[in-house]
Amino acid sequence: MTTRDLARRAATDLSTLLAAESRAGFAWQQRMWQIAACLSADATDDEALSAARSRFEAVYSRLAGFRLSPSADPSTHERLATLTARLHDLLHMPPVTLRRARAADAPRIATIWQAGWRDGHLGNVPDELIAARTPDSFRARAAGRVPDTTVVEVGGVVAGFVMVVADEVEQVYLDASFRGGGVADVLLTEGERLVAANGHETAWLAVVPGNARARRFYERSGWKDDGSFDYVATGIRVPCRRYIKPVAPAL
Ligand SMILES: CC(C)(COP(=O)(O)OP(=O)(O)OC[C@H]1O[C@@H](n2cnc3c(N)ncnc32)[C@H](O)[C@@H]1OP(=O)(O)O)[C@@H](O)C(=O)NCCC(=O)NCCS
Question: In CATH, what number is assigned to the domain containing residue 235?
């Protein structure tokens, strides 16, 4: 899934929300459709994003102070603000690209991995595992796992990575400064594609129960909680949730 696809989805979601929740719904639905149409057009990504950006700029300030119908609840207001910000960010984001990791990426991968691991796991895993996850351990694992790793670059900077082994999406990590903008969707979709390319129909991954942000992210992306199990990491049993998702067969 590319930035353009994500922006099209945000514009479509906005059109649905505005049609249902605003008195001037139809006019706003049309505006958002036009933006989505620019993003569906038979054009290069640059041309499509630039056309959508111009249309969006014309309505952005009005969307920011938009008045929904009086019956709209606070979560609808929140969703409008989130979708507007997401579409803005996606349309202004530098190019997002995927590529296989190279040996020279290992130090950057280790830095993102170590910081992200702490964000998702401190307080959520046995102390023994926290003690085992030293900076050296991340450096060694990042270097050793390069062949399993795909990185995502935003504007030429490595922003995150996904590791896939057979049918398991083993690691999905994004540098904190790039979170919340849709880049993680690009990574996870690539992980799913790689599982399908490995010949599997169902992908799985493990997540610790307390990692609420990651769980929310997976669930929003169509993954289902398939129950609890113990993941053995560095010889230590870690209670986890197993998530699964059917993946399209590779063509
Ligand atoms: C997991 C990760 C890749 C997701 O990427 P992201 O850019 O943060 O994901 P998004 O912001 O698109 O989605 C996160 C969702 O969780 C929600 N969220 C944010 N903080 C939350 C919290 N503390 N509790 C519950 N949900 C939370 C967000 O609102 C969003 O849901 P929404 O789209 O319905 O609003 C990224 O957060 C990360 O690298 N985390 C650290 C490493 C990690 O834990 N990896 C997974 C290991 S299994």
Answer: 3.40.630.30
